[in-house]
Amino acid sequence: MNATALRAAMAPITRRVRAYFAPVDRNTNTPTVFDPGKHGTFALDAPPPPWCDLGWIDNLQRFCGTSTEAICSGTKGVPVLQVRRAMEARVEFDFRDWGKLQMALAGGAEHMNVLASDPDATAQPSGGRPVPAVAVLGGSSAGEIVLGEGAVDAFSTGDLVAVDKDYQQQTGYVGTGIAAAYVNDPMDVLRDANYVRRVTFNVGRVAEKTATSLLLAQPLLGGTPTAGAAVQKVVAFVDREGGGFFQEWSAVFVWQEDSGGRICFYYPRLTPRVQKTGMEREGTVAIAKPLNSITLHASFTAMPHTDENDGQVALCYRSYFPASGAGAY
User: Fold this and answer.
1) By mean pLDDT, which of 13-22, 92-101, 209-218, 224-233 is the weakest?
2) Nearest Cα residue to 303 out of 253, 241, 251
3) How far, CA to CA in Å, does 232 sit from each of 36, 128, 300?
4) Do residues 69 and 51 touch, judged by C-beta distance below 8 A?
5) What are the structural domain ranges in the chain?
6) Is the per-residue pLDDT at 74 higher than 90?
7) Are 171 and 188 in contact (CB under 8 A)?
8) Contact 233, 155 (CB under 8 A)
9) Prediction pTM value
10) 323 has a pLDDT exceeding 70
11) How far apart are CA 160 and CA 151, in angstroms?
12) Helix or strand or coil: residue 273?
């Protein structure tokens, strides 16, 4: 038997890395689980819900700072046991695509939708008083927003829209389906009824219109609009340097298998990493002078997750799916 032939497919070969993110339940610190036995071989263009495809990324770098310490014994201080001390892991990369979620992850703090402004509104860096919202009717879904005859005329095919409830002076996390911001005091947001729609991740592009509905190009990330939701036009996205809210998401990074097996890195909980030294948040990739593609740099710290199979605390899981016919070792 030719052992070399059996081992040839054991070397994973890849050209690109793809990133997928899903929300963490902020109230319970519960991540979205990536089960390699159920999800590991998914089609890269069709990730299992609620994972969201954020496109190809560049310059992925993983860092492990978890330390170990030897327990010594005897007069000569011979090591007899090793223990893990401080656990630390982080990951950095560049998004090649720009979108709401990519900007929110790279920015790290509250990420805002710039709602279409009332012409008479006072100018504000994150958008002034918006055009009034339109109520969402029953029968809506994550992909179809029912507004009724006449009401759909306020929107056009191609518009971006934010769909969520009015802010009702509540405190805590706000945003349907995904925590988009944290409110400590209603006065902090000036009791703005539109505040939740300013920050919500329930944003979509109008692909088509019917006589009564807006049909979205992609389903809303936060899911079906809840009772009392309304919709407003979004003209841009904006984030800020600073802010008291930290994004937290689950992530999976997949090495595309051009030849050989697939490798997946699953981080149950990633939160933006604050660096003491300066770092460029944007970069460029030359296409052909003078054209450049603008990238978004993202840096994260991995937060702990307790594995229910054995109670061990983990920061990252690495999965390898061997190619067909590959050896086990």
Assistant:
1) 13-22
2) 251
3) 39, 13, 32
4) no
5) 10-71+85-108+246-321, 111-239
6) no
7) no
8) yes
9) 0.89
10) yes
11) 16
12) coil
